[in-house]
Amino acid sequence: MSLEISTLFSVKGRVAVVTGGSSGIGLMIAKAPQGLVTNGANVYIVALPTDPITPTVSTLNALATQTLSSGSAHGYACDLSSKAAIANLAAYISSRENGTLDILVSNAGIRRDPPVQCDVLTAPLSTLQESMFSRTEEDWEDTFNINTTAHYFLGVAFLPLLAQAAAAGPGGDGSRCMGAGRGAEEGRGVMLVMSSCASMHNVTNVDLSSYAASKAATDHLVRLLAAKFARWYVRVVGVNPGCALLMRDAVVPSKMNPVGAEGNMFAGLFDKVPARRAGREEDLAGTVLYLVSKAGAYVDGVSLCVDGGRVLVANGQE
C-alpha cells in the first residue's frame, strides 16, 4: 500500500457536492490551492438562486484549466430550508452521477444577530434583556432550519448515493451489513458537516445564542448520523472552524461582521488565540482533504476543531 502523500490525500476523479459553495468557507473548500477542484475533484456548487453560482463555477473551471487540474465545477441552485428541494437536489445528482456520490460537504449556514445589540459583558440588566428579547422566533427557527435541520435531511437524502460510493469496487454491491467496502477503504462515501467552535465555548461579547445553540446541536447530529449510517460505513465527520474561518467574507479581519463603533468584534481576539493569528485557507482546506480522502478513511463520527487553540482559552468573557 502506497503511503505517498499524493495517494493518501488524493481526491482526483471524485465527485463532491458542496452546499453554500459560492462564497466563504464553501468556496474556500473548493477553490483553495489545497481545495477540491484544484486537486482534481468534480464539484457541484450548491447555493441559493440569488447567490453568484454561475460566476463561481466559471472561476473554478478557469482555475482548474490554469493549474492543469482534472477537476471541474458545476452549479445547482437550491433553498436548503426546503425538504422537497433537498430531495430534488439528491435526485438530480443521482441522475447525473449514476446513483453515487463520493463526498457531501454540508457547509451552508446562517447567523442572525439580535436587532438591538449591546456589549453583553458591560450592559446593564435592562439593556441586556432588551437586546436578547429583540430576537424573533423566526430568527431562531431559520437558524436551526439551515444550521441543523438541513444537515439532517441532506444526509438522509444522499445516503443511498454515499453508500454506493462506499461500496464501490470488487465485491461491493451496497447491500452489505457492517464492514467497509472497497470505496470506503479509499475514503469514499463521506459526509462532512461544517459546524463552528462557537458550539464549544460561551462565545464573545455579543449575543450569538441561536447560532451557538444550533451549532452545538449540529455537533451531536454528526454522531447521530454516523451511528445510523454505520452499517454501510458511510462516514459522517464534522469540522469546527475558529473565528476568522467562520466569517462569510473569509479571513479579512476588517470584513468580519463589524459591530458599531468598535469595528470588527473579532480583531482583538487574534493575539489571544494560541496560534496568534487568524485562520487561513490552507488550515481549513487541508483539514477537509484529510477527512474526505484515503488518509481519513478510518475517521468516523467525530468533529475536528480548527481554531488555532481558541477553545482552549475562551471563557465566555471575551
Describe the structure.
Keywords: NADP, Oxidoreductase. Belongs to the short-chain dehydrogenases/reductases (SDR) family. The chain is an alpha/beta fold and 318 residues long. It has a single domain, classed as NAD(P)-binding Rossmann-like Domain (Rossmann fold, 3-Layer(aba) Sandwich), CATH 3.40.50.720. Helices cover 39% and strands 12% of the residues. Strands 3-2-1-4-5-6-7 form a seven-stranded parallel beta sheet, sandwiched between helices. Helix 2 (24-31) crosses helix 10 (281-292) and helix 4 (83-96) packs parallel to helix 6. The longest helix is centred in the middle third of the chain and has 31 residues, at 137-167. 49% of the residues are buried.
Give me some keywords for this one.
318 residues, alpha/beta, Rossmann fold, seven-stranded parallel sheet, 11 helices, 39% helix, 12% strand, globular
Could you outline the blueprint of secondary structure elements for this entry?
Blueprint: H1 5-8, E1 15-19, H2 24-31, E2 42-47, H3 53-66, E3 72-77, H4 83-96, E4 103-106, H5 125-133, H6 137-167, H7 182-185, E5 190-194, H8 209-228, E6 235-241, H9 243-246, H10 281-292, E7 303-306, H11 310-313
Parallel strand pairs: 1-2, 1-4, 2-3, 4-5, 5-6, 6-7
Helix pairs in contact: 2-10, 4-6, 6-8
CATH superfamily: NAD(P)-binding Rossmann-like Domain
Structural class: alpha/beta
- Average pLDDT reading: 86
The largest β sheet comes out as: 7 strands, parallel
The proportion of strand residues reads 5-15%
Helix content: 25-40%
Q: How many beta-strand runs?
A: 7
Poorly predicted ranges = 170-178, 246-263
Radius of gyration: 20 Å
Order of helices and strands: HEHEHEHEHHHEHEHHEH
In the CATH scheme, what's the topology name? Rossmann fold
